[in-house]
Amino acid sequence: MTLVEGVPRSRSRGICRCLLVTPATRMERFLGSAAGAADINLLDLEDSVPAEAKHGARQAVGLLDPAEVPDGYSLRVNPVRSPEGVRDLHMVLDARTAPDMIVLPKVESPHDVELVDEVLAGAGIDTVLWAILETAAGLENAMAVARSRPRLVALTFGAADFCADTGTAMEWEPLLMARSRVALAARSAGIEAVDGPTFDLDDAAALESDARRAAGLGYTGKVAVHPGQVDAINEVFTPSAADVHRADRIVGEFRRTGASIITMDGRMLGPPFLRQAESTLARAGRSR
Fold first, then answer.
1. How far is residue 218's CA from residue 279's CA, in Å, rounded to a whole number?
2. pLDDT digits (tens, 9 = 90+) for 35-88
3. Any residues with CB less than 8 A from the CB of 23 and at least 6 apart, and which?
4. Hey, how many other C-beta atoms are within 10 angstroms of the C-beta on 219?
5. pTM of the full structure
6. Fewest Cβ atoms nearer than 10 Å: which of 45, 89, 205, 249?
7. Between β-strands 267-269 and 73-76, what pairing exists: parallel, antiparallel or unpaired?
8. Could you give the angle at the alpha carbon of 170 between the alpha carbons of 169 and 174, nearest 5°?
């Protein structure tokens, strides 16, 4: 994935149904993820790596062989205004393999994105950026962050840190406003909205429910913290055969009639329905 000068930001749509996180201390698992079904494979230097292991993990990331990394190689660094985050960025500048994408945690203002953008631009690195909004300040500035730089292609809502920061209960209803705000900010800026993880690894029903409710809010994907979650997430965020068939019919009928309003299956459909149908076909990897 590269940032192309002049390409509309809406072109970033559909990059990710599922992002799989692997700690940078589990390099063998990460290198084996190439055979998996996740759209993006993320190596994590932040929360999943204890403080005493960060230096060694960072060194291992810097030595990654370009021939070994899986497609969609992404890297989550530490917060960019922290000493560990600064060290992570220095490592990226000298690494054997630049990540396709850098995920920025605890983003609280456009300046966090702008700082990393300027560092990468100065080094001639075309890696794209992804921001996690997971504090009260980050949510307050969601719209400004989403529109900060063209290099930014996605936002994620980080529920766990948001709850720790605000005292909000980590349940769907209390988090609905915050989760909706992130989705709205991302979609208004023409970038991806990817929901944070479901941490209960043994509750498949909860994972599916969380994913479907996030999709209903406009999220286009979800983070997985275990390989066993990937297939279920992909299924939710991949249009079904029935959805694709209906979208195909809608697009075909609009094109056949040339009308701005059509009637199909007893329903009146206007331009918003056409845009939704075209989006469904795009996400399904199809075009007419």
1. 12
2. 678 999 999 999 999 999 999 999 999 999 998 888 779 999 999 999 999 999
3. 43, 44, 48, 49, 57
4. 26
5. 0.85
6. 205
7. unpaired
8. 60
